Each structure stands twice: as C-alpha cells, then as structure tokens.
C-alpha cells in the first residue's frame, strides 16, 4: 500500500489528504514542469500532491482512501499504439493504470485524466479510442456542451475558450453512460465525465504558454510535428488566450480536497 508523503504529520494537526499525480513522462524536464504546473494551478504544494512517475517505478497497490483524488498527466503514450511498438515500460504502466482506473470508475472516486486520460479512461468504459480525430500541438478552441454547462468543473469558463493540446489519439465515440462535456472543431470529445466524479479532458488544463514551450522543446523529435517547425509553433501558440483551462483544474482540486 502506498502512503502519501507527509501523511504521518504532527498529531492533532488536520491536513487535507493529498492528491495523487500519476506521470508517464520519462523526461525529467517535462515531468518536473508538469508537476510544478499541476501544483501551482491546483493551489497545493508537494505535501498536497504526491507524485508517482510510472516511467521510473511500478505503481504498486494504491489505497484510494489515502488521497483526495487522482490526476493523470499526459505524455507520449497512446493506448492505440500497436502492441509491438509499445515498450516494456509502457505496457507495464498501461496495465497498472487500466487496473486502477477500473477501481476508480467502480468506486466513482475523484479522478481527472489530462489528454492520456481520454485514452485510458475511455478504454476502461468501452469508448472507441482511435486516431480519427488527432489535433496538432498548439491552441484549440473548446466549446462547452449543454451538459458541460451544468457541470461544476466548467462553472468558471465561458461557452467557448482557448486551450492548449496536441494528441495522436482520441475518443471517436462514447458509451451511453459517459457524459460529453466539451468538444472542438476537429475533435468531438474534448472532455467527458463518468458517474459523478470521474473526468477526462483531451486538452491540458495544467498547460500555459511557458509549459507548452517546454514541451515543444522536449518532444520535438517524438513525431507530434516536424522538428523544424518548433519555433513557428511557439510563435503561433502566443496568439491564444489560454486563461481558463487552469480554472478547471482548480475547481477539481477545490471540490475534492478533503481533510486527512
């Protein structure tokens, strides 16, 4: 059983149970930037967000009662990758994640999956995950659905807002029990919810301009875009007003933070 850092704090001092961030980024620069962004926009510190880098260690047995919620970051993995193209680390991490997500869905435990969350959570609930609706790295215009307008996580964003994304796979269809919360012109499923507390977004709620530039630098040779286009992508990204996605992450943290 994993116990979050700082969970054995001083007696008599009530603390919020931390969130658990699961990372699939093997590159230190991108992984650490993601962690800092998640904490900053969620309004917590390292005591409030425990991280497990699945590229560096097995997940182990997670006691969900130790945490306020689970957040899954994005990265270079795709569940739709051909089996023989997946590294041993990806196969192990993916198997662990799908097992944990099955428990999370079964218990309706607070979860927010960012980008890779659509593929993993979608696979668990029977969504069609494929490469029909990829989007290039950069800005995307996200439209909130009528159902999303009634969802607590989207309460602080307008009907249409700018976000950053970039993905090879997505959900081309959702099962009846999933609620579609947002879409974009080139990707019909930008966010969805299962039950009352389990969420996935295709866009990155933790990503601002500085974070996107970091990821462009780190992943320019990972097949998301021609390496020689990196600087033009950075220039184009500056034209987008990405102020609202972090509010979704903050809403998730505020809604589910509980006393430990």
From TrEMBL:
Residues 63-208 form the Glutamine amidotransferase domain. Gene3D superfamilies: 3.40.50.880. One of its GO terms (molecular function) is transferase activity. GO terms for cellular component: cytosol. InterPro entries: ChyE-like, Class_I_gatase-like, GATASE. The keyword Heme does not apply. Signal peptide: none annotated. Keywords: Glutamine amidotransferase, Transferase. The keyword Transferase applies. This is Glutamine amidotransferase.
């Amino acid at each position: 059983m994993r116990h979050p850092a700082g969970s054995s704090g001083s007696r008599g001092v009530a603390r919020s149970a931390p969130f658990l961030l699961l990372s699939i980024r093997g590159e230190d620069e991108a992984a650490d930037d993601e962690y800092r962004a998640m904490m900053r926009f969620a309004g917590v510190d390292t005591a409030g967000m425990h991280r497990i880098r699945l590229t560096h260690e097995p997940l182990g047995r997670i006691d969900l009662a130790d945490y306020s919620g689970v957040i899954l970051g994005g990265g270079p993995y795709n569940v739709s990758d051909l089996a023989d193209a997946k590294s041993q680390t990806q196969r192990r991490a993916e198997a662990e994640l799908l097992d944990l997500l099955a428990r999370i869905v079964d218990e309706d435990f607070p979860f927010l999956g960012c980008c890779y969350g659509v593929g993993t959570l979608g696979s668990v609930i029977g969504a069609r995950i494929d490469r029909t609706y990829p989007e290039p790295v950069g800005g995307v215009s996200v439209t909130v659905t009528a159902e999303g307008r009634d969802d607590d996580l989207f309460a602080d964003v307008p009907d249409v807002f700018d976000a950053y994304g970039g993905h090879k796979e997505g959900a081309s269809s959702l099962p009846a029990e999933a609620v579609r919360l947002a879409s974009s012109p080139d990707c019909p499923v930008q966010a969805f919810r299962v039950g009352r507390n389990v969420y996935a977004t295709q866009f990155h709620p933790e990503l601002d301009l500085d974070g996107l530039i970091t990821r462009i630098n780190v992943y320019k040779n990972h097949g998301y875009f021609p390496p020689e286009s990196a600087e033009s992508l950075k220039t184009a990204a500056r034209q987008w007003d990405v102020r609202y996605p972090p509010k979704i992450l903050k809403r998730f943290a505020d809604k589910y933070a509980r006393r430990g």
